Amino acid sequence: xxxxxxxxxxxxxxxxxxxxxxxxxxxxxxxxxxxxxxxxxxxxxxxxxxxxxxxxxxxxxxxxxxxxxxxxxxxxxxxxxxxxxxxxxxxxxxxxxxxxxxxxxxxxxxxxxxxxxxxxxxxxxxxxxxxxxxxxxxxxxxxxxxxxxxxxxxxxxxxxxxxxxxxxxxxxxxxxxxxxxxxxxxxxxxxxxxxxxxxxxxxxxxxxxxxxxxxxxxxxxxxxxxxxxxxxxxxxxxxxxxxxxxxxxxxxxxxxxxxxxxxxxxxxxxxxxxxxxxxxxxxxxxxxxxxxxxxxxxxxxxxxxxxxxxxxxxxxxxxxxxxxxxx
Amino acid sequence: xxxxxxxxxxxxxxxxxxxxxxxxxxxxxxxxxxxxxxxxxxxxxxxxxxxxxxxxxxxxxxxxxxxxxxxxxxxxxxxxxxxxxxxxxxxxxxxxxxxxxxxxxxxxxxxxxxxxxxxxxxxxxxxxxxxxxxxxxxxxxxxxxxxxxxxxxxxxxxxxxxxxxxxxxxxxxxxxxxxxxxxxxxxxxxxxxxxxxxxxxxxxxxxxxxxxxxxxxxxxxxxxxxxxxxxxxxxxxxxxxxxxxxxxxxxxxxxxxxxxxxxxxxxxxx
Lengths: 327, 270
What we know:
heterodimer, A: mainly alpha, B: alpha/beta, Rossmann fold, about 40% helix
């Protein structure tokens, strides 16, 4: 386990390092190495654009994958992903409302769109939780359905706002596609890291309970797990983690759905192993996807969300077929 | 782009119109802001019976009946009984087809350069029975272009980056009309390799190419300083970052000459 984690961490670090050498500015390897020195002509590109971008990719990938793993375990549903409790819809609604209204607020160096997306994501998750709660319990099926309904409602509201505000189409569509191209990436990394570390850390504490809950909620209760409380904490942690990711870079699909599955196929369902491996793998995967996205289609690159799906889906299907094939 | 526009015009000739082309259109619906502006420029404002909510220039256009925003309400267009609808094929393709299916003649009015804009003004003048006004408007724009070109002739061309939006970071190539205008104003576009007329670029490319002048044609100017490497850019250090009104650059109409003159002043001084 420790060696696996160390190996994954080494891969992630290597990918971040490789990221410094890839980008549409077309620097030679020599220029990149020189650029590491402060005061060099290309210092800003290497250290203030490429490095924080790769780190942002890692943090977001880790947050989404971690959140996806938690929700899949919690809902005992293979289709659960970080957005299952209405987070993407809520975030989109928040972001679009901010874009359309043009309000200007800055907190922690982050603008209104980011803040509003974060609020929208958490607001949606909270609403879903409230809608699903009946008599002190929150049945996961109701939660899933409420998440679906709130998400659909938010998406429809976004469509309406989109139609009424043609001037902002570019900005809105760009946000919804998700992008790691952020000119203030360092600041985003700095703000995102504590949120993600705290929420995924909280998840880690309950990994054993999550294992027990895979048996079903009633057996878990009988085995001494405070099911409702654990559920609440895990949902909140997963939601915060996903909300931060979405607020920082927009909606990047697939990472949170597929990475936990791949890791589960490789290391098994024990959350004490699954969670940390998923977090590292998710981060590394998004750094890799961003690498690809920047290497093709210069000067702007491909939206990273398309790369995660184009590259990840075939790989996942291959793995799935190999693992489930009759021997 | 020009070939595409030409192909579109030719394709239009192949379509089977319900009514033969009129000598002069007296009831016109315009479903693109730049077309509305050109119609007023050739003195055909009174013949315009319908526009979109985004047709805000000239101010008189705002008083016209609205047929939609980016989505055009075909029923409403039909109710106005226009002799033709004027549009830009690549912006309103589906609407154009829907209108043609109901027997409405659709006329394409689009130019990607000053020459083409002037040609479209002349054509619009003829189509609306104001050939002299069309000629006048065309000559005015040609004269303004010539004046600027003469003024900047022989002067060294500073490199520039034109930013039409941030998030996404969007710029124009020399093939786009805004890029064409600033090139004629004596600027060298650092984004001359953009694949299309307009397109997304990466901030690191701007840092790498370090332009002499930066034009910002949008309102998100509050957090310029938070961009990575902003303070080290040549244009920033030299105080040559200019926030320009986007209206002077984003419409392929006579107003583009405002952009041309402004860019020439900012690139080369008075």
